[in-house]
């Protein structure tokens, strides 16, 4: 797969505010693409097909698995989620950086395929705040909240394996931090040198 942009993978426990955070980062940082995942779950209120997810049937998803069309895919809370090669390629070939919204399993798969990708783990301010947020969501029932809290605890124990860790205590500050990570990587010499070598006649330097 052709790649000219940088891949940033964002992982967070359910209820950490990842969707809102990614939307805010994309609004704040220019030239940042977003890979829309496929899922077999039903759309939630306000979600649009092709914008938030590609909503497909389980049969369609399984056919894509058989055709090796996913870079990564996983079972999450009884549903299937996956990142297709075609979605990634269309974004990366444009030269833009790319944001991926993935769980730990998906992040590890992307790291295997793209070792140069950078991973960002977003933490809630505390487990107590996370539980409050989950119980406040109309989509989650008591049993589901307990399951998500147990999974969150397991996920958080693995956050040290990520390249960056950010605590989502204040949305504005968290967006600034993730934006700073992206802009810092764009200033790396190996990325910037090809852009300025002709401007400053640096051939052979």
The largest sheet has its strands arranged as 2-7-1-8-9
Overall morphology: globular
Any idea of the CATH class?
Answer: Alpha Beta
Extract low-pLDDT stretches: none
Tell me the number of helical segments per DSSP (H or I, 4 or more residues long): 8
Major beta-sheet overview:
5 strands, parallel
Mean pLDDT across every amino acid position: 91
Task: Estimate what percentage of residues fall within beta strands.
Answer: 15-25%
The total domain count is: 1
CATH homologous superfamily?
P-loop containing nucleotide triphosphate hydrolases
The number of distinct β-strands equals 9
Give the name of the CATH architecture.
3-Layer(aba) Sandwich
Q: Distance N terminus to C terminus? A: 30 Å
Classification by helices and strands: alpha/beta
CATH topology: Rossmann fold
Topology as a string of helices (H) and strands (E): EHEEEHEEHEHEHHEHH
Radius of gyration: 18 Å
């Amino acid at each position: 797969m052709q790649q000219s942009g940088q891949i940033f993978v964002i992982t967070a426990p359910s209820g950490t505010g990842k969707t809102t955070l990614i939307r805010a980062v994309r609004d704040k940082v220019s030239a940042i693409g977003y890979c829309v995942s496929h899922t077999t779950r039903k759309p939630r209120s306000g979600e649009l097909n092709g914008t938030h997810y590609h909503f497909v049937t389980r049969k369609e998803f399984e056919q894509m698995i058989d055709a090796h069309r996913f870079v990564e895919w996983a079972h999450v809370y009884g549903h299937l989620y996956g990142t297709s090669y075609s979605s990634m390629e269309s974004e990366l070939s444009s030269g833009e950086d790319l944001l991926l919204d993935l769980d730990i399993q998906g992040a590890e798969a992307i790291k295997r395929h793209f070792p140069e990708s950078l991973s960002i783990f977003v933490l809630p301010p505390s487990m107590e705040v996370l539980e409050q947020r989950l119980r406040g969501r109309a989509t989650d029932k008591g049993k589901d909240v307990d399951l998500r809290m147990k999974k969150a605890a397991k996920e958080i124990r693995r956050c040290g394996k990520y390249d960056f860790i950010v605590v989502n205590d204040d949305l504005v500050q968290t967006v600034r931090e993730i934006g700073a990570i992206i802009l810092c990587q764009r200033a790396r010499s190996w990325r910037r040198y090809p852009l300025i070598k002709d401007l400053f006649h640096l051939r052979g330097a």
